[in-house]
Fold these 4 entries.
Entry 1:
Amino acid sequence: METQGLSPPENYDSRQNQSEKEKEKEKEKAIDDWLPITSSRNAKWWYSAFHNVTAMVGAGVLSLPYAMSELGWGPGIAVMVISWIVTLYTLWQMVEMHEMVPGKRFDRYHELGQYAFGEKLGLYIVVPQQLIVEVGVCIVYMVTGGRSLKKFHDVVCSDCKQIKLTFFIMIFASVHFVLSQLPNFNSISGISLAAAVMSFSYSTIAWVASVDKGKQEHVEYGYKSDTQERTVMRFLAALGDVAFAYAGHNVVLEIQATIPSTPEKPSKKPMWKGVIVAYIVVALCYFPVAFVGYWAFGNGVEDNILVSLSRPHWLIAMANMMVVVHVIGSYQIYAMPVLDMMETVLVKRLRFPPGLTLRLITRSAYVAFTMFVGITFPFFGGLLSFFGGFAFAPTTYFLPCIMWLAIYKPRRFSLSWITNWICIILGVLLMILAPIGALRDIIGNIIDKQYKFYQ
């Protein structure tokens, strides 16, 4: 005899499981709505443009004339132009791959890596390299911001008492203790826009002032190193400097994740529009600064073109403040994916409750860490050629190509297959050669006691 009104046990269990799954999904969605990368998806195409400009046109643009002096006219022009073309191509690949699986978005670089190489291997390949780039850039910008503030102070108040670089780095870091609490990419869009305008402005000042100063007397364009071995090593180190200048790929998927997307209007269309605008701005910044700066000063150019210019004082002071504003925005752009990784691990793996307290502690700790390393190693920028080869070259020049080959499997010897393999070969050569030259330079500076802690 059947009991009326009672469901069979298996139906009850299945409904309970379904209810638990729905609760789990709601919980996951709530976490995704809180995490920095996925919390806001209402960005416009021009957000992509200035975020990419801010990420790419870093203060490293001011060292491009020095890189040209180590490369020489022919190789220097070739390396600059080829890098621009190759990185634009690999950036297009990443924009295309963001939504290659219908109904799914690869919001983070490592998620795309996991799809291409497998859950564990993808993490091991992408995350260490991405962290080296993003944390490394944040530390460098701590030092750059502090140095530019110091330079501004010294130019404006030349008779004032000298203040240690350490204190200027701490002043620069104090801004980030506040700004790092902004929740996501869209909330820092105003800062990013200001930074993009500043980067274009100080790049323009650098090359226009060089034109105004004109070609210096007794200018020389030959390699300045006294030995052939040192010339070769510095040439290789300069390749790492150029690789560092094209490092924006590490945040491109995270930027695209902020743009709304539907099957009819996928995010890749507005994103690519923004990328094209950004790359035109990159060309207008990089090429004139590199080529005009080298033309004006030859192999006597300083590693920061603004130092070579030095006059008029008011213009150099203004350019240094522009650098400060720019690296404030750039720091935030590169910090956001790192903060997202930290908060994802804390909330999803370690089950910390998401909220203001967690964000305050996590983000303040990250800013404090980058400030401490910047203060301790104020020569960290000198190590960038070394890192430039190891991490900047793979994530920018050839990792997108490898993922493209792994996912799309283009026909052997087709145009796509050949193009990707050319990029991979060039990128691998850069990854191997740049750190060799940089390491030789680092060892030389240690022997000459050029590196000083806590300046």
Note: The longest helix spans residues 119-156.
Entry 2:
Amino acid sequence: MRMNDHMKTQLVSAIHLQEVELQEKPAEDQQGTRVCSDADPTFTVEDAVETIGFGRFHILLFLIMGSSNIVEAMEIMLLAIVSPEIRCEWRLDDWQVALVSTMVFLGFMVCGVLSGYVADRYGRWKVVFGGFVWSAYFSLLTSFAPSYGWFIFLRSMVGCGVAGVSQGFVLKTEFIPAKYRAYLLPLASIFWMMGSMLIIILGMTVVPTLGWRWMIRISVAPSIILIFLFKFIPESARYNVSAGNVQAAVKTLQWIAKMNRVSLPPGRLVEAAEEERGSWRILVSSTFRRTSLLLWYSWFVASFVYYGSVLSSSELLEKNLLCVTDADGDHQVKHRQEGGLCYCIPFGISDYQTLLISCLGEVALIPLNICLLNVVGRRKTLTVLQLLSAILFMMVNICTTMFGFTVLLFLLRSLVSMNFNVIYIYTAEVYPTVARSLGMGFCTSFSRIGGMIAPFMAQVLMSQSVILALSPFAVTCVICAALNFLLPFETKGRALLQNS
């Protein structure tokens, strides 16, 4: 009995001693590791991004990720340049030429949702890098296509790769502070314009001498260079915390802060992991259902009118379907025959020059775009741009001089490019991190439906009637402008959501 009392006394003393030690060292565990208490300061990725601000990292990010737009533009705009050449080589009808663009956008549409899901589940960086490698490989193979069938198959594979590359916009957006997004993201049009102009210059200089196959081979070079530069871009910190990899997110934010010569907020990064990442249910939940439906149509229209303007200008120039009051001898000939259209109608130097000038239109109104985004917001900017695009599409039907047509084409390309850019920005801002890439993937897939239909309007119907071919582009713009008023969220100046 005494022994039991003695043991009890020792046990109580030991427990009391342990409590005293814990009170004296409340922030250390058994290995001497610091354990933060509830009173320690904490911060989120959003806090860190805003504290870091804009600096050298963002310039690097802007240049490398902007260069991805050069590659994407070259792969898509290549279709407008190569169409007359493959029409001639394989003696294709209008619908066969249009099918090339449609198959490219079909590959983009199928892989758009898949790339968005993979990016939300396994990371943005992997998808974008994989898209670069995939598109460069199949684009190179396209230059060796022995037949029309092989050509459209390989170009559809290129479309799959470009779908992955487009996720780079999400990766870029998640690193940019809220107050800088309306300034930096519209500038992506500069890189798209550079890619468009580069492929036109290649067409002008390489196609007449070496042919379209060498033009494609040379156009792959920027993709290969960019693959090696991509190692300087980290995985999204927002994705890492949503996946529960807080340590990786901290390392990324510390590296960015060091590059920008600033410090992270005091305390520790605390953000809950999200199990439901990349779920389509988030997109059709009560919170985002109306937004998703309206955005899917807006993306359809954005792609429909953009590629409609690109392919229409190419077709009008190639077949001399313009109503031009001062046309030269070559452009007075309407390339029509009783049995169909002529097969071989290559671009002339003046046609390439007109396309180059129209490409400049993609950046001419960037200051106006930035002003609209910051003053009136995203939704109203979309409405203004879509209404003006509708007017310009109908004005292309007006008989004018070649200079007048070039000006109209210049303004039209400016407006449809700005519209595409704003819809990219709004989509990246409105969806939460757990579904941002998937939301972008669904939207880009719906946009490619518009891209699939546009060639049949711009390249098939155009031969029958210019006004009938251009009217659908104007009508869809007007409808979309009206529907923008139903969008429930304005994202101007709003922080990016982490979850729904």
Note: DSSP finds 22 helices and two strands in the chain.
Entry 3:
Amino acid sequence: MAEVVEVTEGCHLPVLRRNQENEDEWPLAEILSVKDISGRKLFYVHYIDFNKRLDEWVTHDRLDLKKIQFPKKEAKTPTKNGLPGSRPSSPEREVKRKVEVVSPATPIPMPAETTQASVFPQNGSARRAVAAQPGRKRKSNCLGTDEDSQDSSDGIPSAPRMTGSLVSDRSHDDIITRMKNIECIELGRHRLKPWYFSPYPQELTTLPVLYLCEFCLKYVKSLKCLQRHLTKCDLRHPPGNEIYRKGTISFFEIDGRKNKSYSQNLCLLAKCFLDHKTLYYDTDPFLFYVMTEYDSKGFHIVGYFSKEKESTEDYNVACILTLPPYQRRGYGKLLIEFSYELSKVEGKTGTPEKPLSDLGLLSYRSYWSQTILEILMNLKSETGERPQITINEISEITSIKKEDVISTLQYLNLINYYKGQYILTLSEDIVDGHERAMLKRILRIDSKCLHFTPKDWSKRGKW
């Protein structure tokens, strides 16, 4: 038992965990916290190079004490020319390295407004072409989420990468915010197990279950309190304007200034499943677009994305989330598609705010690939020659920002330089994979069902 006492916060050692294949493994982990319950020690561990959503409390029998590494004393930060510098393992250096991993590919050196790229069919085929260049590997290991990974047969990784904490694991964060603080959330008919820390009131975080009203998202401490609240709450949908409805799917637009309480409650809930963004209580500068599914009891929240009222960076999404019960069912791509439909109405090109989560990046890569391939495969030439299209034209048609169009074409290895011009070659694998993915993509946005009038927020004072 003496050995167990020696395990303190900051120690690194192998910890037994069960992986996705249901096999035991011993990855290196960091001890973030130690607690004693009725004489039994529990250790909160973060598995190094794994996403924080896998962090958990473990018992001492899952620790490999033979390979324990005790925390080193803080050394003074080295200086260079009298200025503070960063050690190779410092948080600043680590964050920079992780950001570089998830950054979009460097744009190809061509003016997007003028350069044309031809869709190049080889061997006499109108749509088929040579396979991607040999020797060039796709950067699938650089991508990290989404819930729609079942649609990923168009060259996108088929499942979210469970290793790599990306920018979400900021080692200089407060130790409290690195630990999950909510055990369970009851939202309507669903019980959700949070992935990350969320700053709900501290007195509620010790409860076995946190109860939320699924319509106004108000949080209460007990089922009795929730039942009492439901007798007074007359909401059966998010408190905003319904701007889209098709079948059972609706979208509501919520102004973060007019509906501050709901917006803040939505942010608190979302923070349980988003670690790469900082939660702001100032919701005034944001619009929230909440997707719901309708039944006889009301409009149930499925997911949402937020958007700045005024963005100097052309961001059309700030945060985006599909709640866990609805993941892997196509709703993530539907949210992304809806954000670009709004951009089309606004007459702008847009891009999501960076950095994306591992799941978000996977979904966006898949959406961009499917959308761009759909355009390229439907291109026809009236003259009988190879059809041509510019990067700028693809961007205008889809409202996808040019940098994202270029990085996606590079990611799919479609761009080749041939006889002084850029050629897009569609391989058999790319075409077949795209056709299979589109057959699975049943949920789509119908622009005829969208009733949305964009506002010019620059002329509306302080919103």
Note: The two ends are 61 Å apart (CA to CA).
Entry 4:
Amino acid sequence: MLDFAIFAVTFVIILVGAVLYLYPSSRRASGIPGLYPTDEKDGNLQDIVNKGSLHEFLVSLHQEFGSVASFWFGGRPVVSLGSVEQLRQHINPNHTTDSFETMLKSLLGYQSGIGGGANESVIRKKLYESAINNTLKNNFPLMLKVAEELVGKWGSFPEGQHIPLCAHLLGLSLKTVTQLALGERFKDDAEIISFRKNHNAIWSEIGKGYMDDSLEKSSSRKGRYEKALSEMESMLLSAVKERKAQRKQTEFVDALLQSSLTERQIMEDCMVFTLAGCVISANLCIWALHFLSTSEEVQDKLYQELEDVLGSDPISLDKIPQLRYCQQVLNETVRTAKLTPVAARLQEVEGKVDQHVIPKETLVIYALGVVLQDSDTWSRPYRFDPDRFEEESARKSFCLLGFSGKQTCPELRFAYTVATVLLSTLVRRLKLRQLEGQVAEVRSELVSTPKEETWITVSSRNS
């Protein structure tokens, strides 16, 4: 009898151990320190919701488990990297695709490559980047014109009038991106209004609804999202066909039309560029002006550089590399605001970070927002201080994270150009002031935005 009892207990222990090993939702991802799933179906999605955003969840995750940590998206294991050293180890052998674009296309349900292979992905990435570079060269005067119109409007306001940064700078970004991407049809305000309505509906769900799985749980929200996505795709396909018939070669879409991409693939790339380009450009400008409004010293230093480099001439594309302090201001804006706090890549082949093995097809999260305010990497990480980028170590860390140099996502490079044009026009004519008592809180989604409208006032620099 005792023998049977010992056998029975041993059998139960072995059975439970086998279940714990074989059942995916009962063990950590690949043995990497991290969270067990809190729900069989949703994994740790409710934990993300409870923290308020994926970024805040990752901050907590890395505080508890260190710089390499794991959790679960549904039934899928995810590895998050939260330090410069770990990102360096992972980025170097996985640099063929852009991590932000990979994540955005996945959320939209698009394919990253022409035929799915690595070579095709690289070719398509180079084509995409070349199209953006060419449209900047061909349309720089248009960017300057849009910026000058906005600055002229602000300069006409009575001194002390409150200016809503989010509303005005999203408008600037939409006008710039749509015309540079798709051509003259977006000079029409009606087209811009229609584009903005669908753009906002799509981005709001990508930024939140997809990440916390709430979209799937609301049929009305999902219906609105799918309707907006369908209307946007139809609009973009129409623009692609229109430009194809015109045979012009000045806009983003024109460069793609010279390739072997299908109309559907061109539409997808236009969707990514217009969606991400608008949001990243708008929020880079919003945060830059917000931070400038808090520091007269930084404004004056930037003004002096603009006077020294440009004199009374307008900004030109070839002068931008000479504006080193302006670059530092934008770098520090991206860092302080955690502009793109999260990126992701699919582990194409088995990899290793420190002693941890990352299996093939594991989703790898780059917790950029965690790293951008890591006190081991940045002194006084919560302070806006453009002078920190005079140090080589700061520039190297920033480059490694994909915010400068060859690793920069093309939409961010585009946004830097838009922001530089705006700052060079604005700071030479106007002084920015923050409203007393206003605090701009960050809402960290795919791109960090202010939680509420952010206001400033302006006055003439000559007054």
Note: The chain is about 55% helix and 10% strand.
